[in-house]
């Protein structure tokens, strides 16, 4: 007897994935661009040169448009926890709800207030006070991201919590463990660094467009210089911090790591890194694999003698955990009948970490205790995510990361030599590189979230059990509505961004004509 409507699960996952990917078109640009504003305004305050103030004002216009779109898409995304993921919200809301609520308060009160003061405070605040507002806005934006990443990291590595058989929910045992989750720290620094890369690329690319057309030359050169310096530091950080994040995955999400590497069998230590290959999920092999010895072992274990388990070994391990989980499930039901049953308490305490694995069987049988060996094997096999998608998403993302280092290094060198506008091929390269950070960031989220499947909460709650009691038709209706709404917002954002970018600082009256010398810049 199948208790789960797979169509509802699939459509609910699709809806959340689409809205999350839409939302994350705006968030990383906000994270990166606000720090560019803080740097430029700091130069203005230190030098008193009016040109830097005008640079902040122009890039601030584009920042404001993007910020508004990010808030609009973020609000509707959070509604889905109640709409489509009601059981998920019930089961883990005690833990997940707190950081999500704090993030909402910071985003809609702290950030919204500061961004209002940023725009209206130029003539009402002193230079120092306005600079402080900009820096607090940058810090507030990053802190807002921190809380949502704390919540997301708990889904990847659930710590500071335990299952309560009396309430049938996961509950917080240590909020400090949830907050200082090592995965949260790794995800935060890696994610915000990726946003910094996007912010720098945004400024670099649009400035290159001005230089290609011979417009706002001084403005564009200054902007590119800041972007090149900030972008190079950020791109280097992304690679270094991404490596650290990958090490965390190898410790806490072994199946995800094995899937990313298409590592079907456990390799002798240290494991090789597969540069190229064609993963075959059906045959569980990787065709035409090109491997570099030792590299994956060094990255994944930081050693020469530790093995990294392959997918097939991890499936066998999942079968054992499903067996333990069935014992925990049986003990849980016994405790619901008699909460003082000492033997059931002891059994549940011994196997509660594997209870989630028994819940995987709910997709195939109504009672996990009646599962056949075939059911257990099917549930264990379901722990394998989509290997080809993860394999290629990760490699494209990494290739983009190294490309960003090379481009920003070249830009930094040209800025130091004052030759930013000397070669048109470089300006075209900088311009056409604009979409790449978005592509890399979205692929990173696919690796992080798709690689966790079949879990909504790693090892705790299968995704298939988290959905609301809604019909396929209801999901299709809301999915269509969200797609239309988010697409409209994306189109509005793109139109507004293009409109104001094409107008440029001179078209908006922020930058004076080329023949005018700003008073504070006179020799």
UniProtKB/TrEMBL annotation:
GO terms for cellular component: cytochrome complex; plasma membrane. The chain crosses the membrane at residues 20-44, 56-75, 95-120, 132-155, 188-212, 224-242, 392-413, 425-448, 475-498. InterPro entries: Cyt-d_ubiquinol_oxidase_su_1 (IPR002585). GO terms for molecular function: electron transfer activity; heme binding; metal ion binding; oxidoreductase activity, acting on diphenols and related substances as donors, oxygen as acceptor. This is Cytochrome d terminal oxidase subunit 1. It is a multi-pass membrane protein. Belongs to the cytochrome ubiquinol oxidase subunit 1 family. The lineage of its organism: Bacteria, Pseudomonadati, Pseudomonadota, Gammaproteobacteria, Lysobacterales. It holds the Pfam family Cyt_bd_oxida_I. Keywords: Cell inner membrane, Cell membrane, Electron transport, Heme, Iron, Membrane, Metal-binding, Transmembrane, Transmembrane helix, Transport.
